[in-house]
Design goal:
globular, 13 helices, about 15% strand, 10 strands, TIM Barrel, eight-stranded parallel β-barrel, two-stranded antiparallel sheet, binds 1,3-dihydroxyacetonephosphate, about 350 residues, alpha/beta
């Protein structure tokens, strides 16, 4: 365990004005996304699309790291440079999703637990050799009638802690991602309660497994009204409730907090981050680790065509730029229309 390397990686991931691109969609998720724009999800199309994002001129100003998928970390640019080396050459840290997905949790109907601990030590050693310096594990917490259960919160927290300990042992910074899903008609109050309980359970497990908070990055979901809830909270309320939960649960020792977008619109994800980052006196930098909210416009422009690559890169650059500003509380809505 190289503590100096862990500290250096964690600090660089959340460096001022920069955040993470999540490009670690599993092949199944990729298929869904590609289908929405009429592109076949072949290995070559996935490589071409990711390559386009990574090669976007100047995007390294706003993107500190990229979360890769097992297939992607082994792929190359059209010029034959391995993606991790290509990214590192631009000053972007390569990361890797190491969980094997959320599966039904036995005896807990409607709930999931993330798998992937078996053989993880060996996989981490290989990923380190391939260039990965941080990792991601996503746990999924569903809000519904009588759920999440205690069993679900603690099973997921335990897995996150086992994963994080293995990462640190391998000198790889673990991103701890317990995502409270947006789906459902629950109120924002309920989301706040569940998010707090989730983070408390997660932190208790991390502490029990001797994981050092100094060398982890939390990837949190924002506190939001359920997607089908009649009352949709506004930007300021989302920001206040999310930061309140973070203040109650995230140790000041943690180097930073990144957010997932979770199905919010691109602009909501940017506005929410901006409102939080603009708050004074926070103990940690806040930034983005978005997949959909960074990639949506680029994917729509690209549509699988070589002719659209430059325009797709401009669309991606714009969202990365807007979120880079938002991570410093410097984003304004007018900046969106100016660019358009
Ligand atoms: P979204 O931003 O699309 O929620 O994806 C982020 C992510 O990495 C989920 O694990």
């Amino acid at each position: 365990m190289d503590k100096a390397l862990l500290s250096k990686t964690a600090a660089a991931m959340v460096a001022k004005g920069r955040g993470l691109l999540a490009a670690d969609e599993s092949s199944g998720t990729c298929e869904k996304r590609f289908k929405s724009v009429g592109v076949e999800s072949t290995e070559e199309n996935r490589r071409a699309y990711r390559g386009l994002l990574f090669a976007t001129p100047g995007v390294e100003q706003y993107v500190s790291g990229v979360i890769l998928f097992d297939e992607t970390i082994r792929q190359k640019t059209s010029d034959g440079v391995a993606f991790p080396q290509f990214l590192a050459g631009k000053g972007i840290i390569p990361g890797i999703k190491v969980d094997k997905g959320a599966k039904e949790l036995a005896l807990c109907p409607g709930e999931k637990v993330t798998e992937g601990l078996d053989g993880l030590r060996e996989r981490l050693a290989e990923y380190f050799k391939l260039g990965a310096r941080f990792a991601k594990w996503r746990a999924v917490i569903t809000i519904g009638d009588g759920i999440p259960s205690h069993a679900c919160l603690y099973a997921n927290a335990h897995a996150l802690a086992r994963y994080a300990a293995l990462c640190q042992e391998a000198s790889i910074v673990p991103i701890i991602e317990p995502e409270v899903l947006l789906d459902g008609d629950h109120t924002i109050e309920r989301c706040e309660e569940v998010t707090e309980a989730t983070l408390r359970a997660t932190n208790a497990a991390l502490a029990a497994h001797n994981v050092s908070f100094e060398h982890t990055i939390l990837k949190a979901s924002m506190v939001l009204s359920g997607k089908d809830c009649a009352r949709q909270a506004g930007v300021d309320e989302v920001a206040e409730r999310t930061v309140r939960v973070l203040k109650r649960t995230v140790p000041a020792a943690q180097p930073g907090v990144v957010f997932l977008s979770g199905g919010q619109s691109d602009l909501d994800a940017t506005a929410h981050l901006n409102a939080m980052a603009a708050m004074k006196g926070l103990a940690w930098p806040l930034t983005f680790s978005y997949s959909r909210a960074l990639q949506n416009p680029a994917l729509k422009v690209w549509r699988g065509s070589l002719q659209n690559v430059a325009a797709a890169q401009r669309a991606f650059h714009h969202r990365a730029h807007m979120n880079g500003l938002a991570s410093q509380g410097k984003w304004k809505h007018e900046l969106e229309s100016k660019a358009a």
